Amino acid sequence: MCRHSPRLALSLLVLLGAPVLAGNTAIDVGQPLSQALAELSRHEGLATVYTSEVVRPSMRVVSVPQETDPLIVRAALLAQHGLRCRSVHVRCVVERGPDLVAPERGRIELPTSLDRVDVWAGYYGLAGSGAGFLDDDDVAALPHFGDDTLRLARVIPGVAASDSSARFHVRGGETDAVSMRLDGFELYRPFHLASVSEAIGIIDANLVGAIDLYTGAWPSRFGGRNGAVMDVSTREVEAGRDRRIGVGGITAFYTHGWRDDDHDRDLLASVRRGYLDFVLDYVDPDGEIDPAYRDVLLRWRQPVAEGQRLTVQLLSAGDDVVFDDADGDRERLDGESGHHYFWARLESDWSNGLASETVIGHAALRRERAGFLSGRLDANAVVRDHRELAGWRFSHATRRQTDREQRYELGLEWRAEEADYDYRSRVEVRPIARPGLARFSRQFNQRIRGNHGAAWLDYERTWSQHWSMRSGLRVAHFAPGERSDTELDAHLALAWSPLPERRLRLSAARATQGQRSDELAVEDGEERFAAPEPATQIVLAWEEHISRGLDLRAEVYALRWNDPRPRWQNLFFGDGARFPEAEPDRVRVDPERARSAGLELTLSRRHSGSRWWASYALSRAEERIGGVWQPRSWDQPHSVQLGYDREFGEGWRLSTLLAARSGWPTTPLIGEHQLGQNLSVRLGERNSARVPHYLNLAARLSRDVRLANSMVTAYFEVFNLLNRDNPTGVSGFDIRVGERDLVIQPRFESGLPIVPSIGVIWRL
């Protein structure tokens, strides 16, 4: 949005320059400043945090400092553009120097991602200039199945997830408690293949510029869910054209980027097609499942007036799946879903320290599944389920920074939506451990209107280099259907840094989640919306820089849900079930209270082209039912992540990730057999047993080859390198009848087998 500085013009004129080594890092004249900072971070362990508005993509290295100390080199590179470092816990936070506090249009640069890095306990940055856990190169090199952005979250301590789904739990919360956002717009259930466990996210990893994951408190503008926030930003486009063509293990994509620096306009367009259906047809022509998915993203940005920038975006995704089991037990499913989002965002700098952001958009979602189940596990069912959701959203936030120590944000939002339900089912099932045959028919055909409104006020204050605070209040109104509730949420975050290499953070928050109009469980007979579900959380975090490149992070947390919303789930066969409401293990879970607590430790080091990290999480997630505390179905008391990444040779890179965790809870079946009497089976205590523990090793080997005007990255990656049979649940039971006993042994549903894949990305 700002015109080029004389220094930038000079850098564009310097086209030739010999590379100079700063330590182990090659820095070239004319190289993008952001790339030079990334090289220093990768090879010298210098963590540097900035926003794209401070270090612009157009900024280039004017001259290479003739120094060997990487700290001096970094300071000199920043000084070429009037920038400097502010030390915030082992990281250099880049800011404008005193002579550039009011640049070009007299604007104070309002903090954005810098605030999140400074204060919030439970914050993790993935990719982007403000990354605190994994930077852009780490994310690109990390093995991630199907180029799925949402699966990257599982490298964070406290996240629990299954291989078969892109959904994830955070610190004991449910999967629908995570708010998913893309460039300022919230996405509802952003997953492909909704009929088979929502296996793939709709955001292509090749489009990602930054990911902010909040597992504790978060700013009030992110309200609406009570578990976590995953805020994804699309990447910046470099000057000129930025084209990418890629073919991976199960996806192919084309991305086109264009940027006009003179007018500060840019375009980012991408199309992706998953060809898992072709792979399965080739590997197993007579297979039961035939999935296909595709998505398109379009982003256009341009200035509309002095100090104002308009961004228009479109995200469209669709998929369809056919499941046909013609051998033995008979089952067929035809599933289809679509996601269509369109929104515009206007960012305005009105005066010195006054800015605003306005977002208006439309969302339209559709999900359909139809089919039948015949004879499997004494269950027969015919189901037709068609749902649609459409609605408009509006939000506005005004930020006022009175000085360098204080900032206010006042905002409001409104959503109006309609959900159409057309559901019919006939089910005949013999429930597990209950006598008799259950028969029921359900029909729900109704249009439900709903709205949601909220207003908030956030206050931020920094007293010195040692103390800072963020606080906020949010009033939210939830009105799905005939229900109407108003809730008050609040958060407080404090940070104390006695030394630049040490920081203590404390966050406390109350967050409320209300049901949306399309979240009524009509398949299980629910016809009334539940009351909003409040959750309270407190997080204490300690970060310390032990030595050069070696960092320690420790967090303890406690969460409480005083009035959890009832839910329906399957005790055994729920993961990937096509018609979960027709399974014999379907139960209603109505907890009186729920709670979780844990300790998370992370140790990481980055030095000379390599990085490793190790994390351990000790946690407990449980709920009280009938006065008895029971583990939640995604409780994992112990989890470990070990990662290693190294560059070597000419463009080679190896990245490995080892994940291990406790097996998830399951419910045992107990058989009773007395001589001369009938056999009987009863359910044991809910979630009192566990499936075997989980262990998965993934690796990715890649090489970058630079051509005349482009670069090719080829990679080979393997998931579940140990080919371990990681169970995701129970698929059935083996029963052995003896003279005096009845032994029931569960058969476990296997997770993903060893999955090798190759891919090529061509950057033009």
Can you walk me through this structure?
- The chain starts with 5 loop residues before the first helix and ends with a strand.
- It contains 6 helices and 45 strands.
- With 764 residues, it is mainly β.
- Mean pLDDT is 85; it is low at 1-23 and 98-117.
- The chain has a 22-stranded antiparallel barrel. Strands 6-13-14-9-10 form a 5-stranded mixed sheet, with no helix packed on it.
Q: What's this, in brief?
A:
The chain has 764 residues and is mainly β.
Low-confidence stretches: 1-23, 98-117
Class derived from helix and strand content? mainly beta
Number of helices: 6
Strand percentage? over 45%
Beta strand count: 45
Measured as a percent range, the helix fraction is under 10%
Give the distance, in angstroms, between the N- and C-terminal Cα atoms.
26 Å
Q: What is the makeup of the main sheet?
A: 22 strands, antiparallel, barrel
Cα gyration radius (Å): 27 Å
